[in-house]
Structure formats: C-alpha cells, structure tokens
C-alpha cells in the first residue's frame, strides 16, 4: 500500500500537541518524564498499555491523568474476583412494557478504558477484553458493536506474587503493546509530590489540552511515517532472535513485530521526524517485547531474567546500515 508521508506542518502539530499532553500529565506525575513519554507514545501508536507495580506508586493516577488531559470519554473498571464479562462489555435487557430488548453498553464503550488491578479478576473476565483490544469491537448475544476510535485500554496490575492475583494469559499479554513499571519516585520528586498534594488533588486542576478528533488525526500521521526496508528487517530480526534464543521458551509473535514498528513510529513522530531510526526501535524494544516473552527452564535455574536476555539480543543483533532511505515525491511504501 502506498501512502503520502506526513507534511512538516502535520509533524509540527503532532509534536506540539504531544508535548502539551505530556506537560499536562507531568503536573500530576512528578519526576517520571520517560514514563509519561512512553504512555503518550502508546496512545499515538493506537496500542494498549499495561502498568505493573506494587500498590500506591501512581499507576491509576497516571491512567487518570491521560484521560483528563484529552477531551474524550473515559470508562473505569475496578477488577475484582466476582466481576463478570457482562460487567465490562454491557448487557441486553428486556423491557416488558414495550416488548423490546435494549442494549446497555458497559465501560469498554469509551475512548480510554482504565482497568484497575486487572489481574484480580478471573481469566474468564480478563478474556472478555480480547476481542475489544484486538478488533475494536465486542460481540454480545450474537450482535457485534463497534467501539469508539481511538480506543485505548490502560490497565494496571499488581505483581503476580501478591495474594489474590491471577496471572494474565499469554494471549491477553500479547494484546498489550507495552508494559511499563512505574517504580518508586526519586526522593526529590516525592518531596515535590507531597508539596503538590498537601492540600489539593492535582487531578482536579488538570484540564483538557486537546480533543479526541485531534488525537485520531495524530494517530493517522504517526502511522504514515516512513520506515526503510532495513528498519523493518531489523524489527523482524529482533523478533526472530527471541524465538531462537535458548534462554526463552516463548518468543515474540508477529503481532509483537507489528506493534514494535508502530511504537517506534510514534516515538519518531514525537521527535518531529518523518522517518524511523534504529534508535527509535531500541528505545521501545524492552517495554514492547519483554512482557510477551517467557524464560526457559535453563534461564530460571541460572537466575537470568527475560529483560537480561532481551538486552543481550539487542546488543548482538546487527543494526541496519541506514535508518533513512530516499522516498521520492514524499511517498513511501508502508
């Protein structure tokens, strides 16, 4: 498929608007600019984000800050062990007086869906999100309903070692474009957080800086960035190395390679470039790939983490000769 590259004006608008979203979020999230940048990047890549860490470090606050900074619909789901799939997707009810059926949509019918503690729900309920996240639709009682676009699931989860949690199935993890760890803030950032939240909640003073239509246009611009054949081969080589490495018993899927390239395009777009560099791929490789991989028995016995294996793969995989190739008439092959 042939498509036009973004114009300089489109790239400037994307970079400026993404910067405003990040600035707004950073009024709430102190001392974590890289975390905020990657979160906005997943939004522009039209992916889904999994935030994993211990309770109380700001996972849900980060999700709410993104929702507040954009004039869009936001749905929130508090996952619990007794949650049913229909509590997410909605339910069809019968109105006896009118003798008609009425569909009442669930919280997934929103532009940004915040799933709090997703791994506290049963696997059956977790799987209700599979169709929503992959196809942007949900099927209820034989009827398929389209979800709004853009559609972003921003889920939080506690470490699986904590009591009352269920590990996400591999198919569910693979639907998330990236997994990020919030981590504890630096002491200076934590002091700043205390100052900000001593008397007021900064979320209450966070205002929209853009709207959902603008975000949809930004997503389209990011998709149209140019990726040279060498960049695409590099992405495929990284995915292939994860499948062949003896330290991994489950490698990256083809979906992972697609999402790695899309995330790299979003990173390049936020930097104001119309093409992808190898650095963009490397910048997002760990958050995009690590949660999809499973360590082999030998790796676990050796105490080697998936992240360490992925670092080794990034080090040994040959870089493309050039991240930029000629694109005559500002057109490129997608």
Sketch the topology as an H/E string, one letter per element.
EHHEHEEHEEEHHEEEHEHEHHEHHEHHE
Mean pLDDT: 86
Structural class: alpha/beta
Q: Give me the CATH architecture of the largest domain, please.
A: 3-Layer(aba) Sandwich
Distance between the termini: 6 Å
Please tell me what the overall shape is. globular
Calculate Rg over CA atoms: 21 Å
Low-confidence stretches: 323-334
Q: How can the largest sheet be summarized?
A: 5 strands, parallel
Describe the structure.
- 44% of the residues lie in helices and 17% in strands.
- By secondary structure, the protein is α/β, with parallel strands linked by helices.
- It is built from 14 helices and 15 strands.
- The chain has helices at residues 8-26, 33-44, 59-69, 85-89, 123-126, 130-135, 170-175, 187-197, 212-223, 229-244, 254-270, 278-289, 297-301, 306-316; strands at 2-4, 49-52, 70-71, 74-78, 90-95, 100-105, 112-116, 137-140, 143-146, 152-157, 178-180, 210-211, 248-250, 294-295, 331-333.
- Helix 2 (33-44) packs across helix 11 (254-270) and helix 12 packs antiparallel against helix 14.
- The model is unreliable at 323-334 (pLDDT under 50).
